[in-house]
Amino acid sequence: MSVLTNEPPAVKKDRVPTKFGWLIRQPKAVLSVTFLTVLIVIAILAPWIMPYDPIAPNFGALLQPPMPGHWLGTDDLGRDVVSRLMAGAGPSLLSAFASVGLAVVLGVPFGLLAGFMGGWTDTIISRVLDAMLSFPTILFAVGIAGILGPSMTTGLVALGVLFAPQFARLVRARTLVVRRELFVDASRAFGASNLRIIMRHILPNAIQSAIVHAGLLLAIALLAESSLSFLGFGVQPPGTSWGAMLARAYAYMEVNPFLMFPPGIAILLTALSFNGLGETLRVLLDPQSPKA
Amino acid sequence: MVLTRASQRMIGRRLLQFIPVVFAVAFITFMLLNLAPGDPAELLAGEFPTEERIQEIREYYGFDRPVIVQFVDWFSSAMTGDLSNSLLSREPVFDIIASRFPYTLMMVTYAMIIAIAIGAPLGIAAAARPGSWVDSIATGISSFGVAVPYFWVGMVLVAVFALKYPIFPATGSVPFSEDPIGAIHAATLPAIALSMSGIAEITRQLRAAMIEVLSSPYVRTLRAKGLSRQAVLFRHGLRNVGITVITVITLVFNRKIGATVVLETVFAVPGVGSTLVHSAVNKDYVVVQGVILVIALVVVTVNLLADVLYAIIDPRVEAEA
Amino acid sequence: MSTPLLSVKDMRITFHVNGGRDQLHAVDGVSFDLASGESLGIIGESGSGKSTIARAVLSLLRITRGEITMEGKTIVTPQSPGKPGNYGVQIIFQDPHAALNPRSKIIRSLVEPLEIQGKGNASSRRDMALEMLAKVGINRALADRYPHELSGGQKQRINIARALLLRPKILVADEATAALDVSIQADILNLYKDLQDEFGLSFIVITHDLAVASYVSDRIAVMYLGRFVELGPSATLATKSAHPYTRALMSAEPEALPRRLQKQDRLVLRGEIPSPVTPPSGCRFRTRCPIATDLCAAEAPPWREMSPGHYSACHFAEEVMAGKPLDGSDKPQNLESVK
Q: What is the ipTM metric for this complex?
């Protein structure tokens, strides 16, 4: 799949001595990384910096519009929306990172194995991957959550398992190329074991496409987790996530439509930043790129 | 149409791969139920099961037999269209899915049409003048389209076009066979929401493919020979991006089928997706299993058709596979 | 006669092609000995199977018939493939860049063979590697660079240093200079000679380049379509070759010949090397041989010793050795009439 971004403007090489030097000239990359950093800091510090309790109801202030003190208003139980956004950042980000991380951990070894061993091992793994890729993510995750019982863990494990074949495929394709490289033969001529060849030579030369894909997949994972929580199959009350906030906003849409905007925009901006991060990684790790 | 030998061989091989994939899809779906901790019969018996009810279910579904025997039995029934009966309504699962599927298909088709109608011109226009303001807008729209939560777009659309200005209904759906105009009218908001990522994907992939074709030496020669920009763009550019078009349409279709799960819930459309959510909430595992199997088989079949189309358009694709 | 250092006996290497339907004998019944301190050149066109011999000697692939012995000890048979790296044979590949992991610093690539064979500890391995770098003429400051920062010649010296770290008795050079500039080729070939003296190395030099082979080799084996067609001392092959294929290779590269032979006959081989899946009957070279007769299609020529240590597989070896013209002028049959 070709992912296109604006080609970075032709920067004179002699003026850009390092990758870092190139990086800080890219407004998209700088914005994405800054936004995500601030968001992660907020998510970690949330318990100490939230202005109000995000869980306890306040029946004296139901569905308030934005005002001083409640800068984004209050929800159907009178809870401060700013505080809930902060509280929801952690579970939302954690789900995205954990599901993508799990997908990498599960997918990469199978991709290496299939590509390296070839033959029947490859055929069987490839057919199972084809089969797994035929299950639409949300659909399968809802099914698993329904059977195992809904929770944040079930949701992120289901997503991780379903994302894993994407990494397996990418790594398999690269492994097929790298295993024929001469340096692999050279290592074998010194008596290297298969395990050593895979870990020392194949993995470091096959992982780049997976890293780039992980960056782009974070956005998809965030949207998927939000969908699951929106449907009630993700983070369970009293915990909160942006998707769960949208579900409440949906229920009170006719009374206070404003409630849907804070979590919706939070998800949108975070997903945009994940994509920015992924594209930045792609340019940085691509040896064809004039910058790297 | 006469197919080349390479095309025939590739189609043959894809058909051969189709069978084990269908088998694996069925096996994974079947094993889902066995993921659950404890006895599936107890699971199926509901919240307050009696011992007789559990025993009845165990015998009815044959849970006392080896798993492989159960799978072969289930698989052979499933292939004849017997997906067993709902635990709640006792209706055959196949009938439930068959009655709901038209709504889902209508929504997905509508969304695909919107995505192609907006994404294709946008991608072509952007590729015609890379770096221009049209290109910037196209790139911006595609960045937004992949990052925006589509169900949130659905909510915003309802708030504006159903609640504030009641142009479209907020929820509900009309069968296409009874009232086509009403059906299209009712499906407009969900279809727009559903088309978001499709617009983005079609725009960006078509733009990339067109730029690649237009910068090829062959096309540069045509330009040098004096053919107009438009002629080159439409006559040669579009003809050579057929593979990309099939790839992206297949991809978008597969994603949309999954996304209906959420959007059908937002818009209360009685399709397959909302049936799945409803069944998952009510622990009607047999329906959950049936829906997942049918949707996955639809996706596998669409992928197979795409592969066959590839082989017809360009048999060289085989080398890559 | 003393036991040779390396002995390859009747080796055959089979590949399965076209999805396992067809068999291809890339090497089909090859035997040779290598004495201690000797250099053996193996020359042939691409597709002749010469690189397959290199890989088999390294145990990088399995043989289907025959055996390989080292100082009288059997190390490779079809039943028990050898363990690469632990019997004193190392290899230098054609492409110096591709032989180094692009994501490892030079020093990391250098210490790898020592790590694998469990020699020394982390710091002594580094010392050994840096010492070896000096011996092949590379500044130790380059050890912390990445491969793409170095030139082709530098990288080939590093590959040589790395192969030598395991103190092999035999170094196989598989087209090891083909990817380099001519001036650097000469440097590397001279380095081989120096190393041969310093480490008492034996060489197997695989090449398509006759000039390279005759410069570094004591003996040369000429290979065609999986078989040796001629084997003998370099000087003998240059002056008194007993096989038309060798003569053809010589005339294609006049600078490799002594001046007095250069004007003799200029023979350019016609056609492509046939597919090894369906080799010609009898003599495999007959489809491109200017002096082939019906006998060549009917019978495979025997491997005959023409003079001590000089072997040829040609029905007309004596005549070729005596200087028979190869332009077909004295024969009624020429290439076109031979099937």
A: 0.84
